[in-house]
Design brief:
The complex is a heterotrimer of chains A (about 100), B (about 400) and C (about 170). With about 400 residues, chain B is mainly alpha-helical. Chain B has one domain. Helix content of chain B is about 65%, strand content about 5%. Chain B has 12 helices and 4 strands. With about 170 residues, chain C is an all-alpha fold. Chain C folds into 2 domains: about 80 residues, NADH-ubiquinone/plastoquinone oxidoreductase chain 6, subunit NuoJ (Four Helix Bundle (Hemerythrin (Met), subunit A), Up-down Bundle); about 45 residues. Classes of the chains: A mainly alpha (about 100), B mainly alpha (about 400), C mainly alpha (about 170). Chains in contact: A-C, B-C. The interface between A and C is large, with 69 and 78 residues. Strand 1 of chain A pairs antiparallel with strand 1 of chain C.
Chain lengths: ~100, ~400, ~170
């Protein structure tokens, strides 16, 4: 075939998204949870760019751009929060951060 | 000729020239620093120490390749690989000269003419941070970790003024492709002043040039920003635990980064392969003139030699230089070679500035370095970009 | 040619994504995520999204993931200790994963039965010029709002990480 069907890209995006969900549900390390979220965001970016190719418009790229910017802001603040949580409770396991009392 | 064959030819020529340049850049650096410090530098291995890089290569290859048992093996082996790959990858988009004809097919003297060339170089230099961070972490050694973290923080802090200083001449050139940026700097003002970005109206990019050069020094971990790898501070920083070929990889990566920064400065600000004065005023004969001058000096010293051996070798060199000067007068050779000569002359001058500053300035302390980046250089770069944007919007 | 490129980079992306989820040490997960982003950048290039591909490498792989790696190195997070594997999770995990995946794939293939194919050069409107033009004309308000968002994030991060001034 001369090209790759668009649906293959969408299936790849689905696979990556499901892997992100699996990581988010099954991992206990807080930084790995964060990285699973980033994986989900990347999968969604791939979907946006694929649809932008299909409709031959550049708007999908713009959405991807904004998702990246929001992910950057979220990573910065989220990692700062993780650092503070680690400083106070000395653990990176989300199961141990289960009460408001230190 | 097939497109793929042409690319393979270009890649092999570029790889050969680049590897030789990396080796001899180290020789030049040692000689220049030695002369700045009133000593001679390498002079024993071959005439004037010219075979010293060969001796160094043999030493580095045959040294014991130690894999300490306490390191994280995968990342320890991955880090120099990443550093060297990213450093050499960024040279693949640099345009060295004008259009040439190889085997009936016209092509540019550039391995890959991406239309997002500037972004590609920024992306590859962002990825180069990983090599250093991983090296520092995988070595399982507190000095390496500190050196690696400091160096990574320095690299990402100085990426911001670097990118902003790159954005300013892009406003003048209106394109992201490196070849088109160089072509936008052709022509002359009043028939004599070249239209390089550093002189180009409506806003001569002098401040961007200075900011880019300073950020470039920091990006390549050169003095005065080389605290993370200084021997007297942190043992050897992030490459403490590396020996032989892996250390050589980091070394090569540093020199390749230097060449990339110097080439990018030349392309963005100094006109790439555009000549200094118009062809009509004789700029095609500069290389021949320089070689003839070198030949004349050799001939003069050959007539009153200091040593007996010089009575033979110096006239031979004089004949060689005159022969090269004559070859460079052939028109076919001139059209291919002169743009490359101008590019290499400007890049060579900038590399000499790199080495000169290494021999002259003391190094910054780490907090002074970070203060300088965030409190002075970044606002200066933003201001420069705003002023350039304003001038371009008002006057074109 | 396009099929080979797609399969190669898709395989790299999936393997690295599985690695992100499976590895115990956060650093291995982080570097695998960098691999995913690199593979996705190549896929964006095949979809004609040149600017987004480079932005992905510069912003995501070159800045955000470096931040992750910094934090992992600073916190000296060791390998995760596995505790309390529930039998239900182990028995149901992989089948549910494949079930969800096939549901999504079925939905995708059923809802979008297009014959469009992706080949290099199929979409040329993704250059920096086009993205910039759209960004500063149609999407100007989101652009300004996201710049404000970044300012808020910077202030938040500095406040959270600052030492207490006592």
């Amino acid at each position: 075939m001369t090209g790759v069907p668009v649906s293959w890209y969408l299936i790849l995006s689905a696979v990556l998204f499901v892997l992100g969900v699996a990581g988010f549900l099954f991992r206990r390390n807080i930084i790995t949870l964060f990285m699973s979220i980033e994986l989900m965001l990347n999968a969604v970016n791939l979907s946006f760019v694929t649809f932008s190719y299909e409709h031959k418009q550049v708007d999908g790229h713009l959405f991807t751009f904004f998702v990246m910017v929001v992910a950057a802001a979220e990573a910065a603040v989220g990692l700062a929060i993780i650092l503070t949580v680690f400083k106070n409770r000395n653990t990176l396991n989300v199961d141990d951060v289960n009460s408001m009392k230190l | 000729m097939n497109y793929y064959l042409l690319t393979v030819i270009k890649a092999s020529v570029l790889a050969a020239i680049l590897m030789t340049t990396l080796a001899y850049l180290q020789w030049i650096e040692r000689k220049v620093i030695a002369h700045i410090q009133a000593r001679i530098g390498p002079s024993r291995v071959g005439p004037h120490g010219l075979l010293q890089p060969l001796a160094d290569v043999i030493k580095l290859i045959t040294k014991e390749d130690l894999l300490p048992p306490y390191v994280n093996k995968f990342f320890y082996l991955l880090a120099p690989f990443l550093a060297v790959t990213m450093a050499l990858l960024s040279i693949s988009v640099i345009p060295f000269g004008g259009e040439v004809e190889i085997g009936g097919q016209t092509t540019w003297m550039q391995m890959a003419d991406l239309n997002i060339g500037v972004l590609f170089i920024l992306a590859v230099s962002s990825l180069g941070v990983y090599g250093i961070a991983l090296a520092g972490w995988a070595s399982n050694n507190k000095y390496s970790l500190l050196g690696g973290l400091r160096s990574s923080a320095q690299l990402i802090s100085y990426e911001l003024p670097l990118s902003l200083a790159v954005a300013a001449p892009l406003l003048l050139a209106n394109t992201l492709s490196l070849r088109e940026i160089v072509q936008a700097q052709g022509g002359f003002y009043f028939g004599i002043l070249p239209r390089w970005h550093i002189f180009q109206g409506p806003m001569p990019q002098f401040f961007s040039f200075v900011i880019f050069l300073i950020a470039g020094f920091a990006e390549t971990n050169r003095v005065p920003f080389d605290l993370p790898e200084a021997e007297t501070e942190l043992v050897a920083g992030f490459h403490t635990e590396y020996s032989s070929m892996k250390f050589a990889a980091f070394f090569m990566a540093e020199y390749a980064n230097m060449i990339t920064v110097a080439s990018m400065t030349t392309i963005l600000f100094l006109g790439g392969w555009m000549p200094l004065f118009p062809v009509g005023l004789g700029s095609n004969y500069v290389a021949s003139a320089l070689l003839a001058f070198a030949g004349a000096i050799c001939l003069y010293h050959g007539l009153h030699p200091a040593r007996r051996l010089d009575r033979i070798t110096l006239p031979v060199f004089a004949v060689l230089f005159f022969g090269l000067a004559a070859v460079l007068l052939i028109p076919a050779v001139v059209s291919i070679f002169m743009p490359v000569f101008w590019f290499c002359a400007k890049t060579g001058f900038l590399l000499f500035v790199f080495i000169w500053i290494r021999g002259t300035l003391p190094r910054f302390r780490y907090d002074q370095l970070m203060n300088f980046a965030w409190k002075f250089l970044f606002p200066a770069a933003v201001l420069n970009l705003l002023v350039t944007g304003l001038m371009v919007a008002l006057f074109s | 040619m396009d099929v080979i490129l797609f399969l190669a980079f898709a395989a790299i992306a999936v393997v690295c994504a599985v690695n992100v989820v499976v590895q115990t040490h956060p650093i291995s997960s982080a570097l695998s995520l960098v691999g995913v982003m690199g593979a996705l950048a190549m896929l964006y290039l095949s979809l004609g999204a040149e600017f987004i591909a480079m932005a992905q490498v510069i912003v995501y792989a070159g800045a955000i993931m470096v931040l992750f790696i910094f934090v992992i190195m600073l916190l000296n997070a060791g390998a995760e200790v596995k505790r309390g594997k529930s039998l239900a999770a182990q028995l149901l995990g992989v089948p549910v994963f494949f079930g969800l995946l096939s549901l999504l794939s079925f939905a995708v293939l059923r809802l979008f039965p297009h014959a469009a194919t992706v080949h290099l050069g199929g979409f040329t409107g993704g250059s920096a010029r086009d993205v910039g033009h759209a960004l500063f004309t149609r999407y100007l308000l989101p652009f300004e709002v996201t710049s404000l968002l970044i300012l808020i994030a910077i202030i938040g991060a500095v406040v959270l990480a600052m030492k207490e001034m006592d």
